[in-house]
Amino acid sequence: MTDETPDTLLPVTERTRHRRLREQGSRSRADLDAILSDGFVCHLGVVVDSAPMVVPTVYGTDGNTVYFHGSVAGRSLLAAPQTTVCLTVTHVDGLVLARSVFEHGLNYRSAMIYGVPRAVTDHEEKLYGLRCLTEHIAAGQWGYARLPSRKELAATALLALPLDEASVKVRTGPPDDGDGPDAGLGLWAGVLPLHTGWGKPEPDPALDEPVPVPPHIARLARRRPHPGQQL
Amino acid sequence: MTDETPDTLLPVTERTRHRRLREQGSRSRADLDAILSDGFVCHLGVVVDSAPMVVPTVYGTDGNTVYFHGSVAGRSLLAAPQTTVCLTVTHVDGLVLARSVFEHGLNYRSAMIYGVPRAVTDHEEKLYGLRCLTEHIAAGQWGYARLPSRKELAATALLALPLDEASVKVRTGPPDDGDGPDAGLGLWAGVLPLHTGWGKPEPDPALDEPVPVPPHIARLARRRPHPGQQL
């Protein structure tokens, strides 16, 4: 929570109650929003023939609903859209290197969103959802690239999942064995941070003549670039 | 495939047959090995009360078996270890920014491994599996940190999943609409690469006196550091 707006609490359900590592559980809606805002790839879990299937895919959100492509798990979701899914977004922030192997772990932020996705069929809502998805990933791109034709829109299966039921977990900080008996071992302990950053935009070799990188893409690349990198 | 060793083909099953975006499907065992080698966090899918549950967790592998903690999805896996799981590892390499919204996508490498995990109960095998897990994440740490006590080992639920059934997908390169009618729009198109790198090791503030960062951690941090970063 870095925001000035008052936070709200996520509801607790049988699925989202934190059973394990409760100290890492968060009920903060602001934490959920921040995790979704910081990412654009989720792992979507569906049940196919009684077995789980976990597919990486992009998502976007308007703060109330998560939009994602239904075709990624086509066999299941399109055949039976009234199926519960689990959509998980994870950010790995670092390795927690403790004095004992047992206390090793990760610094991370993750959100698991449960629900029954709804197939978006209305033309206007589909455009709205695809716009959310596109702008969430690369703000400005919806106004720059060619928008979907009616035929492309019809070929796009878009699903909408409400942000009603979510389980959030966050771990930050140093290892937990700094005040235990292992502290006397004299071993180094700490965190090895992991960072993700955009590289320099790579123009399509098929561009016949040089086209400048549009300002919104240059801005996006600058937002979280590698340290020391020049755009 | 960057290796000199001959590649083998992954078997095709009902679950791993590529139905969608077949050009992104790979049957290369070397691709699978490289994806597993490049990562240490997976998204584990299990079925709980007929609904999917997708949990991020760390993994390690010795090339034949993937080891991971059984406690992460405790409710399901420990109660019924004879349950099929889907363990997915994904690397996101960049945004594919096409001329049309419809052609947008990701450059990525992902592996979905299916199977029924086996609970590791034998003392020696549990040590072996935990060593694989630890060394996969931070090579050298098993020989540096305090090893698990009998009590800690008993409290650790370790699962083993064979690398027998896997579906691999890889996308690389520029957008696909460089030779279509949209190429004439004169828009910029290309890839915005995404990189992941280690930051500078952060010592635990609880360290009473300065302890040097052990060489294997300094080496790990140097292996994929942010450009321009000094260790």
TrEMBL record, chains A, B:
Bias-annotated ranges (Basic residues): 219-231
InterPro entries: Pyridox_Oxase-rel, Split_barrel_FMN-bd
Pfam families named among the record's database cross-references: Pyridox_ox_2
Organism domain of life: Bacteria
UniProt-annotated stretches for the region Disordered: 199-231
PANTHER family according to UniProt: 5-NITROIMIDAZOLE ANTIBIOTICS RESISTANCE PROTEIN, NIMA-FAMILY-RELATED PROTEIN-RELATED, FLAVIN-NUCLEOTIDE-BINDING PROTEIN
Name listed for the protein in its UniProt record: Pyridoxamine 5'-phosphate oxidase family protein
